[in-house]
Amino acid sequence: MKAKPKKANRRVVGVTKGSGNVFADPGLPNSERKLIRAQLTLQIYSILKDSGMTPVEIERALIENWNGQLPVVESAGGGLLLLLPKQ
Q1: What is the value of pTM for the model shown?
Q2: pLDDT digits (tens, 9 = 90+) for 33-48
Q3: Backbone angles phi, psi at 44, to 5 degrees
Q4: How far is Cα 83 from Cα 7, in angstroms, rounded to an integer?
Q5: What is the maximal distance between C-alpha atoms in the chain?
Q6: What percent of the residues of the chain are helix, what percent strand, and what percent coil, each to the nearest 5?
Q7: Residue among 42, 32, 17, 46 at smallest CA distance from 79
């Protein structure tokens, strides 16, 4: 004789649709800037990952080209402004 499956304890959980900005939803300060920085970080990561360079080669390139500094992102006129470090 087969054992009867146990009923799972179920809880009803409320779900609220987010704004699309995970930093704004909990009310964090500078949420737009944080979202932009996260998006830029993902884009830089994707480019570096697809470049085929090793982590050491990436580090060397950053140090040689930008003296180890990373670009700065600012929102300007409804868009993004990417400020590259001086070479």
Answers
A1: 0.56
A2: 889 888 888 888 888 8
A3: -65, -45
A4: 58
A5: 77
A6: 35, 10, 50
A7: 32
Indicate if the pLDDT at residue 1 is higher than 90: no
For residue 28, the 8-state DSSP code is -
CA angle 15, 40, 56 (to 5 degrees): 125
Q: How far apart are CA 69 and CA 85, in angstroms?
A: 6
Give whole-number Cα distances, 76 to 23, 70, 86, in Å. 20, 19, 20
**Structure-token pair, residue 57:** 């080669």
Cβ neighbours, 10 Å, residue 66: 14
